[in-house]
Amino acid sequence: MPDHLHVLAQCDGREAISLTMGRAKARISMAVHRGGEPARLWQHGFHDHALRTEESVREVARYLLANPIRAGLVSRVGDYPFWDSVWLEHSLG
After folding, report:
1. d(CA 70, CA 74)
2. How many angstroms separate the Cα of 65 from the Cα of each of 38, 91, 93?
3. Which distant-in-sequence residues (6+ apart) come within 8 Å of 12 by Cβ?
4. CB atoms within 10 A of CB 65
5. In this model, does residue 1 exceed pLDDT 60?
6. pTM of the predicted model, to two decimals?
């Protein structure tokens, strides 16, 4: 079972990232616990990192998508059932 989550998202600046993360954690928790006993799912807080250029966005997206390969979960990115990225367009080939 994974012990962390990586998310690459574009923010519009209308809301603090802490509010956005709080909402995301709440929605995921509700989906996971639907019909079952609630259990602690998230640690307090989160780490964020702002990207500045389109090139760094692609580099980070590639790094994140390769995590399941580095962890030995799959041999190809497309074999991992939870991958998706609009940042890569068709660059994975």
Report:
1. 8
2. 30, 12, 14
3. none
4. 20
5. no
6. 0.64
Predicted confidence (pLDDT) per residue in 43-69, tens digit: 888 888 888 777 688 888 888 888 889
Name the residue type at position 91.
S
pLDDT at 25: 87
Task: Give me the residue label for tokens 């012990």.
Answer: 3
The label of the residue with tokens 């709080």 reads 22
Q: Are the C-beta atoms of 73 and 80 separated by less than 8 Å?
A: yes
**Which residue type occupies 60?**
V
Structure tokens at 11: 């923010």
Q: CA distances (Å), 90 to each of 14, 16, 51, 75, 84, in order? A: 30, 31, 21, 19, 12
- pLDDT for 39 beyond 80: no
Supply angle C-alpha 75, 81, 83, rounded to 5.
85
